[in-house]
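Entry 14. Structure prediction run on the chain below.
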Amino acid sequence: MRIDKFLKVSRVIKRRTVAQEACDGGRIEINGKVVKPSKDVKVGDAVTVTFGNNSMSFEV
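Output returned:
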């Protein structure tokens, strides 16, 4: 599943367009690498979402 769709479906980010903008802005990382919105996320991946001074990390 695409990372932008995953973030929307899992309710981490409320809208897919906001998730796409976050990816384009370099605020989404998978396993320590900044990713594009089309990157596939798999079970076991470590995702980090950064907004301002706040950061949220979780494992898929």
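The mean pLDDT is 94.
Filed with the rest of this week's runs.
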